């Protein structure tokens, strides 16, 4: 059974983005970028991988990315129909309709059922849950691992990491790494 990992940036007050999907307020440092690229090169969108000269970097952890419509929209607005061309991309949307790219699966299917199908596939790689909070809330019971990049920023408002009903879900801390930008990367596994 494949694992699904929710890999997210998070403010101190629990937001993954600002109220209008802003993410440009997260501080970046070279040591943090180098560490994350060494561990998870596939989480960088294809056009960024190519811009930094790593377009052909092998995938280490994931071969599939799942995301909600709001996570997919910024790429579409920039004219990029497959932001993760190096991964199989599944976008959950009840409003998008037909996929703008033949390699991107857009589905209005039940996210839990579709993710269970993906997890049952035979692959040495896992599934990367890119966001957003609504999809993560719907998939909380299917998340096997979380990699939380906790930044020293208070947003005050925005999109929470999970939009769901009250569901206390305990995870086990596996690893902590800290960086010059004040970010702590926390890796958790489902108990």
UniProtKB/TrEMBL annotation:
It comes from the Bacteria. Gene3D superfamilies: Dihydrofolate Reductase, subunit A. InterPro entries: DHFR-like_dom_sf, Riboflavin_Biosynth_HTPR. PANTHER family: 2,5-DIAMINO-6-RIBOSYLAMINO-4(3H)-PYRIMIDINONE 5'-PHOSPHATE REDUCTASE (PTHR38011:SF11), DIHYDROFOLATE REDUCTASE FAMILY PROTEIN (AFU_ORTHOLOGUE AFUA_8G06820) (PTHR38011). This is Dihydrofolate reductase. It comes from Mumia zhuanghuii. The lineage of its organism: Bacteria, Bacillati, Actinomycetota, Actinomycetes, Propionibacteriales.
